[in-house]
Write a structure and sequence with these properties.
By secondary structure, the protein is an alpha/beta fold. The protein has one domain: Uracil-DNA Glycosylase, subunit E. The chain is built from 7 helices and 6 strands. Strands 4-2-5-6 form a 4-stranded parallel sheet, sandwiched between helices. A two-stranded parallel sheet has the order 1-3. The chain starts with a helix and ends with a helix. InterPro entries: Uracil-DNA_glycosylase-like, Uracil-DNA_glycosylase-like_sf. This is Uracil-DNA glycosylase. Residues 1-20 are annotated as: Disordered.
Length: 199
């Protein structure tokens, strides 16, 4: 997605981009793997808080439906699919303004399956860059074990890490077992706590 497309998308949604261009420069860098090959990384959501976000909503890796959108893909709660819809419902029920949040993935590039140790280590370095680009960040809600493990690895391995509240909840994917009602309740309550930390 080029700059004109991003600006047009922001206008179409009736909201200004809040520092998403700075974050998209990070995403562009992450699209080149250490071995020089190109890989899929979505852009950041122009309807999010951008660099002004106070709450990071951290998922695992881009969903197949996001990958299918190709160059126009955005990591957003507006994406098709049940996980994005479940996140949007939980955020709205929790009363958390969308502009306070930034949704992203602990491993920003597309994966074939669950992230391995090498994915999480490379993702940890990218997550550190992202966190440093969010000066107002006050809380992280990590959805699923890989996201929680990734953010905790950042906080306990990065020499420059600052204390940051992290709330771990189950991933909201319908493939994540039969405890969907509990998943929703935990997500809503974690988002409310994150909102309090961000206020």
């Amino acid at each position: 997605m080029d700059r004109d497309d991003r600006e047009r998308l922001g206008r179409d949604r009736g909201r200004p981009e809040r520092g998403v261009e700075d974050l998209d420069r990070l995403a562009e860098r992450w699209r080149t793997a250490p071995d020089g090959t190109r890989r899929f990384v979505p852009s950041f959501d122009p309807d999010s808080g951008g660099v002004e976000a106070r709450i990071l909503l951290l998922m695992q890796s881009p969903a197949r439906s996001t990958v299918a959108a190709g160059a126009r893909a955005v990591c957003s709660e507006d994406n098709p699919g049940p996980t994005a819809s479940a996140l949007r419902r939980a955020r709205e029920e929790a009363g958390v303004p969308r502009g306070l949040c930034l949704r992203w993935n602990v491993v920003p590039w597309a994966l074939e399956g669950r992230p391995g140790r090498a994915d999480l280590e490379e993702g940890r370095l990218a997550l550190g860059e992202l966190i440093r680009a969010l000066p107002g960040l006050r809380a992280v809600v990590a959805f699923g074990d890989p996201a929680l493990q990734g953010v905790m690895r950042h906080l306990t391995l990065a020499e420059d890490a600052e204390p940051l509240p992290v709330l771990g909840v189950p991933h909201l994917s319908p493939a994540n077992g039969h405890h969907r009602a509990e998943q929703h309740v935990r997500a809503v309550r974690a988002l409310r706590l994150a909102h309090r930390a961000a206020s």
